[in-house]
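User: I'm putting together a teaching handout on how sequence relates to shape, and I'd like one worked example. Could you take KilA-N domain-containing protein from Sulfurimonas aquatica, show the sequence you're using, and then write out its predicted structure as C-alpha cells right after it?

Assistant: Happy to. First the sequence, then the C-alpha cells directly below it.
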Amino acid sequence: MAKIKVLDQDITIVKVNDEDFISLTDMLKSKDGEFFISDWLRNRNTIEYLGIWEKIHNPSFNYGEYATIVSQSGLNSYKVSVKEWTSKTNAIGLIAKAGRYGGTYAHKDIAFEFGMWISAEFKIYLIKEFQRLKDDEQKKFGWDIKRNLTKINYRIHTDAIKENLIPKQLQKSQINFVYANEADILNVVLFGMTAKQWNESNPDLKGNIRDQAGMYQLVCLANLESLNTHFINENITQEQRVQKLNEVAIKQMSILLDDSNMQKLENK
C-alpha cells in the first residue's frame, strides 16, 4: 500500500494482481457537495468507458449483462452499485474492499477518468502525483539492484580471500591492501582499469567505478566474484585467475547484451 497527496487529500494506492488500484473513496472526499460513486456509475459515458476497458483487459467480461446495464444507464430510475456492477459483469477494473483500508478502488486507468469527475484540476494533479510515486519507486528499485548485486557474494568472496590469501599476523593496512588488490583484479578484468586509475580519469564523477557501472556490468561482476572465490579456493595463481576471469567476462557480457530480459531490466 502507498499513499499520495492530491490537493491536500491523501489517496491510497494498493496492488491487486501486480496492478495499481487507486481509492475512489479517498478521491471522492475532494468533490464538493454530497455525491456517491453510484452517482458516477449512473452516467452512460462512465458505463461505456468501463465496458471498453473491460473488453480490452478482461476476457471473462459478461457482455450480455453489460448490454442490459448500458440500456438502462442515464435513466432517472437506474442505479447500480460497484458490487452489483462487478457481480453482474465479472468486471475486474473496480473492486470493493472491506476491512481497515476498505472502500472502492479502481484500476489506475479508470481512477484517472474518475478524477475528471472530481474536477479537471484534480485529474491533472492525480496523474502528476501518481507518476512521481512511480518514478520514486523505480529510482529506489534501480539503486537497490545496483548495490545488492555487488553484495550478494561479498561475504563468500572476502572469507575466501581471508582464508587463502592473507598470511597470519598481518597489519591492518596490509590486510586492506590485499582486499583492495583482489577487488582491483575484478575491476581490471571487467572495466580495464583499477579503481585508482578510474578515479584519476573521472575526477568530476561521484562515487566509484562500481557505482557508475551499468546493469549488465553489475550482473557480470556478481558472477565474477563467485568464480574468483572458487579459483582462490583452488589455489590458482593470480596471473592465471586474471586470464580466466577476463575470458569469462568477455563471454558473459556478450551473452547479457543479447538477453531480452536484461534489456527490459536495464530500461526500467
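A couple of points you could highlight for students: The first strand starts at residue 2 and ends at 6. The CA atoms of residues 1 and 248 lie 42 Å apart.
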